Amino acid sequence: MKFSKSWVMEWVRTELSDNALAEQITMAGLEVDAVEAVAGQFNNVVVGEVVECGQHPDADKLRVTKVNVGEAELLDIVCGAPNCRTGLKVCVAKVGATLPGDFTIKKAKLRGQPSHGMLCSFSELGIDVEADGIIELPLDAPVGTDIREYLNLDDVSIDVDLTPNRADCLGIAGLAREIGVLNSVDVVEPTWTPAAATIDASFPIRVEAPADCPRYLGRVIKGLNLHAMSPLWMQEKLRRGGIRSIDAIVDITNYLLLEYGQPMHAFDLAKLDGELVVRRAHADEPMTLLDGNEVKLKETTLVIADGKGPACMAGIFGGDRTGVSETTTDILLECAFFAPLSITGRARAYGLHTDSSHRFERGVDPELQHKVMDRATRLLLDICGGEAGPVIEVKSDEHLPKASPITLRRAKLDKVIGIQIADEQVVEILTRLGMQVTTQADGWSALAPSWRFDIAIEEDLIEEVARIYGYNNIPNLKPVASLAMVEQAEGQVTIKRVRDLLVARGFQEAITYSFVDPKTQQTLFPQSDAIVLPNPISVEMSAMRVSLFTGLIQAVVYNQNRQQPRVRLFEQGLRFIKDEHAENGIRQEPMLAGIITGNQSDEHWDVKSRGADFFDLKGDLEAVLDLTAEGASFSFERGEHSALHPGQTALVLRNGEPIGHIGVIHPNLEKKLGLKTRAVLFELELNKLVPAKVPLAAEISRFPANRRDIALVVDRQVLAGDVLAVIKKVGGNQLVGINLFDVYQGAGMAEDKKSLAISLTLQDTQRTLEEKEIAETVDNVVRALGEELNASLRD
After folding, report:
1. Whole-angstrom Cα distance, residue 175 to residue 767?
2. What pTM value is reported for the model?
3. What is the pLDDT of residues 745-766, one digit of tens each?
């Protein structure tokens, strides 16, 4: 929105400088992009009257004039402008005048004729107007008056970049209201003599789409003189608002567009057929626009049509068939309110963006149309003559916007802004913004004016108060917040500790999607009843995961396909299980899973290369379980899992309750899943890692420890874990360490037997153990193993 400062000052007077005004409205949320002078720098240019104008004797394109500038003698000036003529009021740069470009006027002779000055064009005064010849001033322009004063050229155009919600400022009226509120100055709206109807002429209007067009006004005006020129003051205001003068009718509608932000349109009454209908376009309905382009209308486009078809693309662009031309004498002037959503995006669908669509998309005051229609009629009658008929109105009250009271709480206002603004000042700000304010016990109730359709909730009122009060006036205060130590149960294994441990052991954390390929998941978990999404991102991401295995395996395949043979990943996330007893029928369980593949360690000259196996991952998992300081409560049993090797799968238990699985991927699934090498996986219910045991400090024994090694022969099917469990049970408090350090099967050993080498460490905290006591404890262990597991000492 570009506006002239002097025009705004006609509505609201302030003593602010150009830059101060720009700064003020910028800080109020209306960002100023540019402040530009409306004319170049010049002096000693005055209003003159051409008294004589004759042909130059020696030049066909030059004229010799005598010009009255209000001095005792007429000035002889040679002029080359084709529009120079006797009786014309012109801009005269006298001898000594300095024009833009540091050009000084001097006495001269042109083809032998004296020239003591210059008759100026717009471009010579640095005024951006496309016109041939010299400036033609109104006939009542006072001779001798400084042209800067007469045309008010000590003015600036201010270009404001408005946010979409501030469409109320897309007109001088809205900007004046804003400046008036910011400076606590009353706004004085221009007055005019109402344009009463003097003839009975009217035209039938019907609205078929009242939701799109709740109010439509039309008025017939006859006997117009379209050859009448727009007054210079109007042309200048349009120019400073960024609009070029075209003809009187277009200029007046553009003038109202800038003054009140209300678009209008004029139809040639003689070209209209039947009645005017506001309706939606028919599919592919043809229409020729004012610029000559032909379009095929879409069904979503609102049009103003007559008996021959669309006459105007409502709120966007006029049609060529019914447009005003040089032969027009009678018009139908329209002024309407179109619902923003009925115009939004419609212009862009045709590659258009007009001043009209720009305003209607953002919103126009729905109560403004009668005032603007009367204002436009008065200007037309004053400039072009003619007679006006009565205003024709079609409206739908139920579809017109209606404001609702909004409550502003004092406590909420103070909390958001951070300071307390006096009650009287809050009421004054809201009232000056045009709101109807009622004081309540805990705040205020405000009813927004019709032009502020962007104000709908309490936060909008808070923003308005803060904005008008001035963001710069709100003190910068550092936030004060009290910090309290968060209670952290020691008997809890946090996910951070688990992550840190696994990263330290060479793993990398992965984050995979909760949505997985249902085919891959079905391959791993054929018995699963997965939750299928009704509107998935893609077919490959249409099922909720029942395990973290699916995502981790796909991540390994992705890395292997990119020449990464050694992969160690872990993930913490949710799995989703159908459960009719859970909220929404879905039970979400936090899980921890890991996967390894490739060599156990990177290639090294001092480390023997070997592939990672079940026991490597089991060691990593045991390290995680040891974070609970209750490693003895966890155990591993032979188990089964649809995705894991039937002979290399273990069930992870805590105090006898299953909490997860660990094992090698099923060999039948490796190729189906795209794995290039064997992969070992584990998955735990993360919540089952708590509670943890809080370690208790104990004094280190001052007495020596004693180690005894035993080699036991047991049946092959006997689990080493069972052997260790019996030893722990029988060993008593003096058994402080137990370790399985060798397993042997081979020469010298029966096929159905195996040898387990176990070290026992015995120690007492009160005394030195005697050899007899140590031997007795070892004998008790061997005896119990023989009785319970049929074990014997190896020869």
Report:
1. 96
2. 0.64
3. 988 888 889 999 999 999 998 8
